Amino acid sequence: MRPPGVHLREITDDNRDAVRALRVRRDQKQFVASVSKSLKQAAQHPEANPWYRAVYLGDEPVGFVMLSWKPPAGPYEGRHFIWRLLVDKRHQRRGIGRETLTQIAALVRADGATELLTSYDPGDGEPWPFYRKFGFEPTGDIDDGEIVLRLTFPAR
Question: Per-domain residue ranges for the chain?
């Protein structure tokens, strides 16, 4: 099921407050930082080459995604890494996260990548089942206590 109208938009002065107001469920807070914290981390770590967008359903912001887009150095040098993905608690379980991942994977693949990476903090309620269903597999690496996952794109 693809929710119609899910698309990515740049964060501007016009939508920043609405995007910052997005919240995950209480039991998910240990796994995903807020939009405000994410934007702060992006500003503090320009070397990670942060790329972020608001996720919209029609004209309503419903989520946020942030990647480290081919950073010039570090453990993910030249690779695409999902640094943050969240869907507001009022809009979960509707396919929005999956559709966002589908769009991100298409953008990354169009950029010439053969894989998309992410990581998660293991624990009760962890996002691993969501990523596994999408096709991510563990790389065997651990980064700062988080399990690193890879989505491999088939050869064109």
Answer: 6-152
